[in-house]
UniProtKB/TrEMBL annotation:
It comes from the Bacteria. InterPro entries: AB_hydrolase_1, AB_hydrolase_fold, Carboxylesterase_BioH. PANTHER family: HYDROLASE ALPHA/BETA FOLD FAMILY (PTHR43194), PEROXISOMAL MEMBRANE PROTEIN LPX1 (PTHR43194:SF2). Keywords: Hydrolase. Residues 109-367 form the AB hydrolase-1 domain. This is Alpha/beta fold hydrolase. GO terms for molecular function: hydrolase activity.
Length: 398
C-alpha cells in the first residue's frame, strides 16, 4: 500500500471511529456535533473508577423466571416474570374467591417495554419496588439484551420497523401472559411498541388491557426533533446520517474499537442526553452507560430508519377509554416533553406528569416519582391493593 493510500485508510478509520461514537450516542438520544471537554483525570484512574462502580452497584442485578417467545419471523425474544408473593396474593380482594372453592381469576400482569439501545434492566427501580406486589413481565426487544438478533435483519439486511416491534410484544404477551388483564408500560421506543401493538391488535387492547403508561415517548414527528443542536447541525445530521449509519453498520468491528477508544467522551455525551439533574448518582450514570454501550453499532443502524417513519397518532384512539399515565422529563432532548403533551392532548382523560428536572431516562433519574405515579395507576385498576406501600411511596398518594 502506498503512503498516500495508507494515510487515507488511516484517516477513514479515525473518521469512522469518531462517527461511530457519535452514532452510538444516538442510542441514548444524542446527535453528532456535541462539544464535550475531555476529562483531565488519567485514563487508568477513570477505568478503575468504572470497575469500582460496576462491581458495587446493584443496578441491573434483578432476575426473574426466564422464558422465551418467538416472533412471527422466528426471532427469539427473552423475557422474565416476577410473580406475586403468595402472602400479598392472599390478601388481595380478587384472591379471596379461593376461600369459597372457586378458581381465582388470572392476576393483572404489568408488561414493561424498554427503549432504544437499553434493555429490560432499565426498569430496575420500578421492578424492585413492585416485586412481589404485582405480577410483572420484563422483556428485551429484538437485538437488545438477552434477546436474539432479528432474523430478517441478519439474513436479509432489512431495517426494523416499529410495527414489527408491536408484533414482537404480542408474541411475548401470548407466551408470558396468555390470559388475564394486562397493563402496558413503555419507555421511549417501548412506548412506540405499545402503540404499534394497539394499532395491529385492537381487539387485544379492547378485551384485556386495563391501563397504559407511556414514559418519555412519542406518537410521531420524530424527524423534527433537534436534539438541542443548532439548525445547521440538525440539518447535517438529517442529510448525512442515514448513509453514514449504513456504512458504519457494515464495519461494526472497526467502529466498536473507535467507540471504546474514546469511552470517556462517549460517557459524557450519554450523561448529557440521558439526564438533566446535576447530582445523578455516578453508579446510575455508569449503569445507563453500560446498557447503551452494549448495543452494537449495526443494531443502532438497523433501528434508526424506524423512528423517522414512526407515526402512531391514530393508534392512540384505542386507549381513549382506559386509564392512561403520560410522563416525561421537561428537559428531555430525545423525545421532548411536547410530544408527551401532544399524546395527552389526544387522550384528555389521561394523567399528564411533566418532571421539571429530568431528561430522557426519567425512570432512572427520578425513580421514586415514576414508581409512585405508576403504583397509583396500578391501584386505580385493581392491579395491587390501594393501601399498598411501594418502596416507601404510598401508591394512593397524589
Amino acid at each position: 500500500m502506498s503512503e498516500s493510500s495508507a494515510e487515507a485508510a488511516g484517516g477513514w478509520r479515525r473518521t469512522t471511529g469518531l462517527a461511530g461514537i457519535a452514532i452510538g450516542v444516538l442510542a441514548a438520544g444524542a446527535a453528532t456535533g456535541v462539544a464535550i471537554e475531555r476529562l483531565t483525570v488519567g485514563r487508568g484512574v477513570r477505568r478503575k473508577a468504572q470497575l469500582a462502580l460496576d462491581s458495587t452497584g446493584p443496578y441491573g442485578a434483578l432476575r426473574g423466571t426466564p422464558g422465551k417467545a418467538y416472533a412471527d419471523d422466528g426471532t427469539e425474544l427473552y423475557y422474565e416474570v416476577d410473580d406475586v408473593d403468595p402472602g400479598a396474593e392472599s390478601a388481595h380482594p380478587r384472591r379471596r374467591r379461593r376461600l369459597f372453592g372457586r378458581k381465582a381469576p388470572a392476576p393483572v400482569t404489568v408488561v414493561f417495554s424498554h427503549g432504544y439501545c437499553l434493555n429490560q434492566d432499565s426498569w430496575h427501580f420500578q421492578r424492585a419496588a413492585l416485586r412481589g406486589v404485582v405480577r410483572t413481565v420484563h422483556w428485551d426487544q429484538r437485538s437488545h439484551g438477552r434477546s436474539g438478533r432479528g432474523v430478517p435483519q441478519v439474513r436479509d439486511g432489512v431495517p426494523i420497523t416499529i410495527d414489527e416491534l408491536g408484533r414482537d410484544l404480542k408474541a411475548v404477551i401470548d407466551a408470558a401472559a396468555p390470559e388475564g388483564p394486562i397493563v402496558l408500560v413503555g419507555h421511549s421506543m417501548g412506548g412506540m411498541t405499545v402503540m404499534a401493538l394497539a394499532d395491529q391488535f385492537p381487539e387485544l387492547v379492547r378485551e384485556r388491557v386495563v391501563a397504559v403508561a407511556l414514559v418519555g415517548t412519542s406518537s410521531g414527528r420524530l424527524g423534527e426533533v433537534n436534539f438541542g443542536l443548532p439548525v445547521a447541525g440538525v440539518n447535517a445530521v438529517r442529510r448525512f446520517l442515514p448513509a453514514v449509519l449504513k456504512a458504519l453498520g457494515q464495519r461494526a468491528e472497526l467502529v466498536e474499537k473507535g467507540r471504546r477508544a474514546a469511552a470517556d467522551l462517549f460517557a459524557g455525551i450519554i450523561k448529557r442526553y440521558s439526564f438533566a439533574s446535576r447530582d445523578v448518582d455516578p453508579a446510575v450514570a455508569r449503569f445507563a452507560e453500560r446498557m447503551i454501550e452494549s448495543t452494537p453499532i449495526d443494531v443502532v443502524a438497523e433501528y434508526y430508519p424506524a423512528f423517522n417513519d414512526h407515526d402512531k397518532t391514530e393508534a392512540l384512539a384505542h386507549f381513549a377509554d382506559l386509564p392512561v399515565l403520560v410522563l416525561a422529563g421537561v428537559q428531555d432532548l430525545v423525545t421532548p416533553s411536547e410530544h408527551s403533551e401532544a399524546i395527552a392532548g389526544l387522550l384528555p382523560d389521561a394523567e399528564l406528569v411533566l418532571v421539571p428536572d429530568a431528561g430522557h431516562l426519567v425512570m432512572l433519574e427520578h425513580p421514586e416519582l415514576v414508581t409512585d405515579r405508576l403504583a397509583d395507576l396500578l391501584a386505580r385498576v385493581g392491579a395491587m391493593p390501594s393501601a399498598a406501600t411501594v418502596d416507601g411511596c404510598d401508591s394512593a398518594s397524589s
